[in-house]
Amino acid sequence: MTTAQDFTLAELIIVAAAEAWRGDGELLATGIGPLPRIAASLAKLTFEPGLQMTDGEAFLVEEPVPVGPRGEYKPKYSGWMPYSRVFDSVWSGRRHAMVTPVQVDRHGQANISALGPDFKKPKVQMLGVRGFPGNSISHKNSMFLPNHSKRTFVEGNVDVVAAVGFKRDWPQGALPNGVEIGVIVTDLCVFDFNGPDHAAQVFSLHPGVTFEQVQDATGFPLARAEAMKTTEAPTEEQLAIIQRLDPHNVRGSVLKGNPPGIRAAA
Amino acid sequence: MTKEMNLKSVVAELRDGMTIGIGGWGPRRKPMSLIREILRSDLKDLTLVAYGGPEIGMLCAAGKVKKLIYGFVSLDVIPIEPYFRKAREAGTVDVVELDEGLLLIGLRAAGHNVPFLPTRVGLGSAVMTNNPDFKTVTSPYDDGEVLLAMPALKLDVALIHVNKADRNGNTLTFGPDPYFDDLFARAAGTVYVTTEELLDSIASENPEDLKANLFEPYYVKGVVSAPLGAHPTASHYGYGWDLPHLKAYSASAGEESGWSAYFDKHIAGGEDGYIASVGGEGQIRALPLPTF
Fold first, then answer.
1. Residues 18-47 of B with CB under 8 A from A
2. What confidence tens digit (pLDDT) does each residue in A209-225 have?
3. Coil vs helix vs strand at B236
4. What is the pTM of this model?
5. Which of A77, B112, B199, B221 is deepest in the core (most CB within 10 A)?
6. Partners of A95 in the β-ladder
């Protein structure tokens, strides 16, 4: 294992995001969007072989399907996973997804539905709540947000609660298993909601990023995790696998300007 | 007995104010030829229930929708259906925005003739606050858990596109995913099917073939021959969705009189005119199926 010297921020994020699935064993791993999908694939190929993944449509594959145009590559299917079975997996709890909300608040609630105070006439209609309500109360969810700012990590509550968080805004006696949120990976850091009383706490800072910089870009208070560290750089071996999983460099188009993994000192 | 109908005779059986379920999923296997026939009709005040794609946007654009009950309305690669977005941001339609899975639970309740099904899905989320008529129920067993009583989503009719059908109402649906067409059929009890291929009989000696049969013919009231009838959505394994067309359609939403221009160009001239207006049969059959 050789630590790479030259890598992009997207590659650093993929390696950090793959860690979300460490320890999961056998379950359905769903990374929505290119970086989470490559991350889940990397986790499966390097330390969580029991992760089960789909071809992005309706079949399970034992070898993660590379992103982008397939060329000569033909996936081999080992199972059938139409949406009816995706919901069965979700509600059984045997899934861990990584998703990209538009807004996240201090309670870990997330929004992809709509923006504005009036749901009957939203300022901006987005995706709707989609599967977020059911996902968030059935299985663990992690998040990837490419643009860490006060617009995404909002000061108040999210405009529409699509994913349930730790606000416990439900009747007494409901949701006995509560909610489980994994890691939040952004372009600045990795954090989780495992601080005191589910407070947000920074777990690692990407190279060249300061805690103050992250706090300034976040609409709610952040704690420092006890073992707060610098996000680990990819190894050459990981970069080679990432290249195989993403031969067309789709990852290079996710973050504006495809910045390097180690930021120049400000 | 033959259940064969045509687009006009099906639409003649629909009524203002009906609750109509539409099969398929986003830009996949939508009964678009029937939707276009509705767009050519005087029908109005419809309540639509769907995993929505362009059919929802078009019916909104044409002012035919009173209420939408949806898991999403999306063109997939174009994430937000443009005319749905316009209708929402103008506040012109009532909506019941559901978790995707909650929609199937509501349809299942209707198909099973029960008033609700209990679920955890939706609790703690905007589904509850935006639908204040949704009620909870307490488990009568020792656990005493409080659950959402998801009300049955009873439909008047369902419109579903299939690959093969016969005049008795037997159907085959191909493709990687059957979606929830079976639940729409049961929740409605009355289904009008459009089919790529209409046969005298789908009967086969190979029992495996019949795994593509999703719902019983006693639900099927009408079968309409509609080759290419899912365009611009995908119909496995005949043709993929028409992305250039969907992009042009989406762009029209941002143009002055964009919808009426789209209607005049593609819909006003009937289905033969429609196929010609989008490049003809050869071009449609060459549309690639999507990969991810």
1. 25
2. 999 999 999 999 999 99
3. coil
4. 0.97
5. B221
6. A28
